[in-house]
Design goal:
Elements: E1 17-23, E2 26-32, H1 37-53, H2 86-101, E3 106-124, E4 130-146, E5 153-161, H3 170-183, E6 193-199, H4 201-214, H5 217-221, E7 242-244, E8 267-271, E9 274-275, H6 282-288, E10 296-297, E11 305-306, E12 311-313, H7 320-324, E13 329-337, E14 347-358, E15 361-374, H8 375-381, E16 383-384, E17 394-395, E18 399-407
Helix pairs in contact: 2-3
Length: 409
């Protein structure tokens, strides 16, 4: 819905099969959305021919058979039985946009939307694994603009869940989008220099995602990770714990088995500030002389990659206000722009916008500045508040990092 009128309705359905073939230590992958018998026969023939011509990889192969998940899979409550009708989705989208447009200062709208989906993932291997799991998705969003002309500011609110009951009311989504946009009007500039940076929970999760990416065994094996020299090292302050929990009921990234048929399990990636080891699929485990950790993921064809599931940073003891109370001059970041991370060195530089912090209080919007540092000292300086949120794939409380470099005026 945009400006009170229906702008777009979409529905799509698709299915896709990916086939990975091993010929000794040679492998190839091929995919098709044509699942007819003749197409699948041709798919298999081409995959074998490609694998026969591929270079050898001494680490390629199926997951260890003795480690495969056997028996029943845990019920993670990822499916909602009733599918909302298009009319119900329309009403939700309209309510979200109406609430956003009703906020004083909102002058235009990019729309309110509501969506519903369902997916199923199945994996079968030639050494004895067969399993499937799926989940529904329900989403609500609103995006609006405040102000006029060159002073226009945009912001949004968005939520997704497996069950509609886990979403906030559409009016709450719209109100938050409108309030966020209005709060950004007439932004100032921030002076350059070193200062504390506080990350709002909706952007702070990206820091933990960078950590998980650096813990990939594939990156470690290629010597292409900023964490290479920090195995099981004291990376964060004592007391910091970061958890990967693929078995959390209704978690956005929950899964009973990984992309190779291995069981998944809750694990502390960081415990009392220390790394607990790498995230490995079978190929990385062979290369690094370890055991696969159940973190293999499948993309659109090709060999498995490595990824965590539902990540969260355990909360601290201070409220966000207490966490910021002693900051004489700093910035509170609500939006990050660009992808300014060197995954090999950990050098970090992102465009940002948000609010100034003056004497422990938010003191007006600021925009067009850059925050920079290196993830290793950033992690060492990281402190967190007690306002952990639970509705994302990476859930974090408000995060504070002192001593980051700000490039502004």
């Amino acid at each position: 819905m945009r400006l009170g009128k229906l702008e777009d309705v979409e529905r799509s359905e698709s299915e896709h099969l990916d086939l990975r073939v091993f010929v000794g230590r040679r492998s190839a992958s091929i995919g098709s959305s044509d699942l007819s018998d003749s197409a699948l026969k041709e798919l298999a023939e081409r995959a074998v021919a490609m694998a026969s011509a591929a270079p050898e990889d001494q680490f390629a192969g199926l997951a260890p058979e003795e480690l495969l998940l056997r028996g029943g899979f845990p019920d993670l409550d990822l499916n909602e039985a009733a599918e909302p009708s298009p009319q119900e989705l329309l009403a939700l989208a309209q309510a979200a946009e109406d609430a956003a447009r009703g906020v004083a200062g909102v002058t235009n709208s990019e729309g309110g939307s509501a969506g519903a989906g369902q997916r199923v993932f199945a994996l079968v291997t030639s050494h004895g694994f067969a399993g499937a799991y799926g989940g529904t998705s329900r989403s609500l969003s609103a995006s609006v603009l405040a102000g006029e002309g060159a002073n226009m500011q945009r912001d949004y609110a968005w939520r997704t869940a497996h069950h509609g009951a886990d979403l906030p009311p559409p009016e709450e989504i719209g109100l938050l989008a409108g309030q966020r946009a209005v709060a950004r009007m007439n932004p100032g500039r921030v002076k350059s220099g070193a200062m504390p940076v506080v990350f709002d929970p909706r952007v702070g999760g990206s820091l933990i995602a960078h950590l998980a990416g650096g813990m990939s065994g594939n990156a470690i094996a290629r010597r292409a990770s900023f964490l290479l020299d920090h195995a099981e090292g004291q990376l964060f302050a004592p007391g910091i714990t970061i958890v990967d929990d693929p078995l959390r009921p209704r978690g956005l990234s929950s899964r009973p088995f990984d992309g190779e048929g291995l069981p998944t399990a809750r694990r502390n990636l960081v415990e009392n500030g220390r790394l607990t080891g790498w995230l490995m699929d079978s190929a990385a485990a062979r290369q690094l002389g370890g055991q696969p950790t159940g973190h293999a993921v499948r993309g659109a064809g090709g060999s498995p990659g490595v990824s965590a599931s539902n990540l969260h940073l355990e909360p601290g003891e201070l409220s966000p206000a207490q966490l910021m109370a002693d900051i004489a001059d700093g910035v509170y970041v609500t939006e990050l722009i660009g992808h300014g991370l060197n995954p090999v060195t950990g050098d970090y530089s992102r465009g940002a916008s948000g609010f100034r912090i003056v004497n422990g209080e938010l003191a007006g919007p600021v925009a067009e500045f850059t925050i920079a540092g290196n993830l290793i000292p950033m992690f060492a300086a990281l402190r967190c508040a007690n306002d952990l949120e639970w509705h994302r794939s990476v859930n974090v409380p408000t995060i504070r990092i002192d001593g980051m470099m700000i490039a502004g005026d």
